[in-house]
Design a protein that fits this description.
By secondary structure, this protein is of the alpha/beta class. It has helices spanning 7-10, 49-68, 71-87, 89-100, 104-124, 163-175, 188-200, 215-227, 240-250, 275-286, 307-319, 339-354, 387-390, 406-414, 429-438, and strands at 15-17, 20-22, 29-33, 40-45, 131-133, 141-148, 151-155, 178-182, 208-210, 231-237, 256-260, 265-269, 297-303, 358-361, 377-380, 397-403, 418-419, 421-425, 443-446, 461-462, 465-466, 479-486. It folds into two domains: 7-261 and 464-484, Aldehyde Dehydrogenase, Chain A, domain 1 (3-Layer(aba) Sandwich); 265-453, Aldehyde Dehydrogenase, Chain A, domain 2 (3-Layer(aba) Sandwich), CATH 3.40.309.10. GO terms for molecular function: succinate-semialdehyde dehydrogenase (NAD+) activity.
Amino acid sequence: MTQRYELSDLIRTDNFIDGKWMPAASGKRFAVTDPATGEVIARVADSGPADARAATDAAARAFPAWRDTLPKDRAAVLHRWHASIVENADALGRLISLEQGKPFAEGRGEVMYGASYVKWFADEATRIYGDIIPQQQRGKRMSAVKEPVGIVAAITPWNFPLAMIARKIAPALAAGCTVIGKPAEDTPLTALALVMLANDACVPAGALNLISASRDNAQEAVADWLEDGRVRKITFTGSTPVGKYLARESAGTLKKVSLELGGNAPFIVFDDADLDAAVAGLMASKFRNGGQTCVCPNRVYVQSSIYDRFADLLAKRVCALKVAPATDLDAQIGPMINARAVEKIERHVNDAVKRGARVLTGGKRRSELGANYYAPTVLADATPDMQLSCEETFGPVVPLFRFDDEAEAIHAANNTPFGLASYFYSQDLRRIDRVSRLLEAGLVGINEGAISSEAAPFGGVKESGYGREGSKYGLDDYLSIKYLCQGGLE
């Protein structure tokens, strides 16, 4: 039977290494703050290379036994972990809201989304199949089997502090790998709580280890993992510059690397679209977590003949969004994660207005609520020379671009080094087939704004990274294929 915890019970401030909670070797700590108020929630371990090495040592000791654990027994552990997450969904949702700022409904939704990956990979643990290769020579039998790659280092961002680490840890454990992890410095508490529940579910000591580190120490701590040949895989979600650094520094030991990086998602509305559905889809995809998602639309292209109607419908919906802290149960947009995020949003909006954009709604800070709030914004007459056209804003800002024909829209959508998500609305079946093939993105939403699912492969192309999370493909990057050739059979 799973145990239900209160929010205060879930707040852990030490590293979790080899099944034990322990402070950083240096004794240092750093503050985790509430983005809604700036108040300190807790002071957590500020780890360095010694802590990273201790986590690797524990994972290395635990790997042989976990690798050899029967798949059905690994699955049972993950199912217990899933049950514990679901049982504590409300408390975890409040913790996410507290340290990340998203409204409680979204925080709880993230808990259930993350839990769905744990359940999915619990089931997939028993479906890791190999192949018998058709006989090529008499007296020889050939086969291919899949084995866990080894120790996996998981590094995750602040915007989905539970879901991002759950969808990395779950497939790694399901495959028989052991895990060392580091959550973002802005939101370590949720990840530490998740590990606490995994410990309750009897994940063996050393199979799952987590350290926290401040912005000042994180690179040095992770560098130990990059240099250690025992760490066989890096899985990272975050910015493209950091992803490139991790790929480059992993090359010395030829680690497997999975990278889910930045995006610049286009959202195309053709003149044959259902405009009400398109507005609803854009609202769902853009304003989740206040626009702080890697798959939210960053550039919205609307065909000229419907541009004004669409802009009017959208501005009315956006203007009605309630901006408030997560403690307000009616909140739809919470605070941004920190002051740097608000400054970037403000810089993008000011640059766009300077270059000719019109503010249809928003376009300013909500300082009366606190330092990290920005009003949901719609900008008309956006152009390619604006900063928000080529940089990911990561905030509640919708720039509307005009286009005349399909070829122009496709060119504009693909005219970016990124290729994570893309969306388009059309009711023309032939156009749907054409556009879905031509868009250069790992994820394509067709008349749909909410596209993420544990059953679907998630990942990008171009500079948005490589590797896939979720779905039946989600175990592949945690497995190696071994070829077996047995001779002398005649």
